[in-house]
Amino acid sequence: MSKRDFKLACLPDGYSIIFNAMASPCEILIQSKDLSLVNKIAITLTQEIWRIEDKYNRYDKHSVCSLINNRAGQSVDIDEETYLLLNFAEQCYQLSEGLFDISSGVLRKAWFFDGSDNLPSNAKVFEALKLVGWRKIKFDQQQVTLADKMEIDFGGIGKEYAVDRAIILAKQITNEPVLVNLGGDLAVTRARLNNEAWHVAIERPSLDSKLTDTTKQDMIISLKQGALATSGDARRFLLKDGKRYGHILNAKTGWPIDNAPRSITVVAPQCIQAGILATLSLLQGMNAEKFLTEQEIKFWVRR
Amino acid sequence: MSNKVEKINIKAALTLATTTLLGCHNLAQAETAETDTWEFDTAFLVYSEVDRVNAGEAILNAKKTFDDDKILNLKLTVDALTGASANGAVAQPTVQTFTRPSGNGQYQIKAGDIPLDDTFHDTRVQFNGQWTQPIASNLTASGGVHISKEYDYLSLGVNGNFSVDFDRKNSTISAGFSYFQDTFTPEGGIPKPLASMLIGDSSAPTWDDEFIKTRIGTEDDKTTTDILLGFTQVINRRMLMQFNYSYSIVDGYLNDPFKVVSIVEGSNENNSGVTQDVIYESRPDSRVKQSIYAQSMYHFDSTVLDISYRYMWDDWKINSHTIDSRFRIPMGDSLGKESYLQPHFRFYQQSAADFYRPFLIDDNTLPTFVSADYRIGEMTAFTVGLKYGMLINNGNELAFRLEYYRQTSTDAGFNKFGALNDVELYPTIDAIIAQVTYSF
Fold first, then answer.
1. Does residue A139 contact residue A145 with C-beta atoms inside 8 Å?
2. Among partner residues A10, A221, A273, which is closest to B18 by beta-carbon distance?
3. Domain boundaries in chain A?
4. Cβ–Cβ < 8 Å for B71, B133
5. Which of B4, B39, B338 comes nearest A195 by C-beta?
């Protein structure tokens, strides 16, 4: 399967559309045997998902994201979609009191979560942190301006946004049940026929902290409506003097959040909401479960 | 982020931000499966044998899924049965008279006809409740109760089952047991095995005293213990295989109180083949049954083929083969929304129990066990049918099933002679089955 191709697999009561996007294995499930409908869904949704990937992938030098980053220090014209995403990032920044910041990606220049004990020096973190700060970004409906050398990264919201956009398109095309799963962040258009739930297998990182441990056990979640997103990655961490440094970084200090869960899965009406709630709760560190409980949402925490 | 009020506002604020981003104004609430909804399946079935039994059956099945995939399933079945059933006696070239099982009155069978007892009518109410829940990550437990009541029959049962998933849920091993306690209270009591049916003037003053001599009590019971082992394997995305083994012990009263056996004159006598006596059947008081079962489901690009085979054998020396197959053909929206057609074919063949005799010969001593019930004789049966389903009313399934069933009893090597040469010994049953199901 080439990068921009999908394949169909037959299921007992529908089809699975399998493709790659956003560096993840992706799948669209449709509970219909109508092949022309299945093809229409496959083409429309994958085109939309790849469009969003092309537009906001910071690793793609032709993307809007790269354009904005490459011209840091200058104003860049933006379209309405980009404005809406920046506006959403702004809301998340405010709601998290600065813990969630789409300009914090440059901290990766200091941190390499390779399972080793190579912590960066304070000086190096401080150097990177100087380039972080949503407040230093100016934007309105027409333009965005980053401070010099700053970078933004839609990685924390892009995949979930693509799920939600695909669901909107699927609902416009058909009433048949559709599930969109982009690497574990997923949403459904409705319950399956006869009001049955979708059963979704979520990769559950082993509770064993050993890096070599590759046994994974799937967790099965039933979903009738809405979306589900997971934040965190148990395999990305540093370990020094018995202390574990997870890859969730505090955008304000430049250091990993203490006692952050390894990953959190959240159910919400929209995927992007689920994703942000999962990320915001990770940023609460040891208070993650308390935070989630207070939000009165369904969640699963792996520590 | 310092107090609870602010934190609760995060969700609301995010909803607003999401609405702005996605441009959708009425956001649906996320709903996971543990919502308080019941799913219902209803079915109405009519079974009609030509000139014999007619049955109507209504089924209501209610299923509720709770938190963590706990499932409660409740099922109520009501059957109504009327018509006539072969009583086991052979047809004769003359009119025959039989006493009703209750002892109240008699019925006559025309010359040449297979004797049918037309007092066959009953209403059965059956309830099943089943609770299933995961008890560890790959272990599911299930337990249930069964109550079935007819006018002259009560059945109580319990069952339990464990299943273990492994290989990323591609394989499942299950072990189950069930135990049933059944009580018969036939009107007129339990007939004495091998006793002659009393035939004569049922209004005579001595009738009741004579009739009671053919009885051994008012009720009797039996127990059934089943053990089932199963293995299910997902072969690949298209194919699933299942294998079962079952072991079943039935103890107690295993006779059918309504079945009799004719005793005829031997082939060298003057009235060769003519009935001299009619006795109540006598079966052993235990039966051990075993069966193996294999099923395979295969999904082609759009169609689904489901084939199964069962081999059953027991210590009554009955063995049977069952081949069952269904082929589901999606019709798209051509015959109704998401419609499908599903042809069905089933073939069944069984050998006779070692004590099965279509009749006994007068000069022989009576065997300990004997039955002329066609259901434990040698037979072949097949079913052909078609099911047609579609979705209506927002995804609820409506389906119709129409099937034809033919059962042919065959001669397991018993010689016919004299009067028996002129009559049919082995009945053929033709039946039509019609069913409507609706799920919502």
1. yes
2. A273
3. 6-57+156-302, 64-153
4. yes
5. B39
Distance CA A274, CA A299 (A): 9
ipTM summary value: 0.81
Residue A112: which region, alpha, beta or left (left: phi > 0; alpha: psi -120 to 50)?
Answer: beta
B329 close to A (CB below 8 A): no
Residue-level pLDDT, tens digit, chain B, 440 residues: 444 444 446 777 788 788 888 875 444 444 444 345 688 889 999 999 988 889 999 999 998 877 667 889 999 999 998 888 899 999 999 999 999 888 888 899 999 999 998 876 789 999 999 999 988 878 889 999 999 999 889 999 999 999 998 876 778 899 999 999 999 999 889 999 999 999 888 888 888 888 999 999 999 999 999 999 999 988 877 788 999 999 999 999 999 999 999 999 988 888 899 999 999 999 999 999 999 999 998 888 778 899 999 999 999 999 999 999 999 998 877 888 778 999 999 999 999 999 999 999 987 789 999 999 999 999 999 999 999 999 887 668 899 999 999 999 998 888 889 999 989 888 899 999 999 999 88
Query: DSSP per residue over A242-269, as a string?
Result: TEEEES-B-TTTSSBPTT--SEEEEEES
* A296 neighbors A267 (Cβ within 8 angstroms): no
Contact A294 B39 (CB under 8 A): no
Contact: B395, A194; criterion CB under 8 Å: yes
- What is the extent of the structural domain holding B178? 35-439
Determine, yes or no, domain membership for B161: yes
CATH code: domain A64-153 is 1.10.3980.10
Residues of chain A found within 8 Å of residue B168, distances taken between Cβ atoms: 218
CATH architecture observed for domain A6-57+156-302: Roll (3.10)
Among candidates B258, B98, B254, which has minimal Cα distance to B191? B258
In a domain, B16, yes or no: no
**Residue positions counted in chain A:** 303
Q: Do A168 and B69 touch (CB under 8 A)?
A: no
Chain B contact for A164 (CB, 8 A cutoff)? yes
Into how many domains does chain B fold?
1
Residues 80 through 139 of chain B touching chain A, CB cutoff 8 Å: 137
Cβ-Cβ contacts under 8 Å, A12 against chain B: 299, 304
Q: Is residue B14 part of a domain?
A: no
Asked if B276 contacts B308 with a C-beta cutoff of 8 angstroms, the reply is no
Does the residue B195 lie in any domain? yes
CATH number for the domain harbouring residue B236: 2.40.160.40
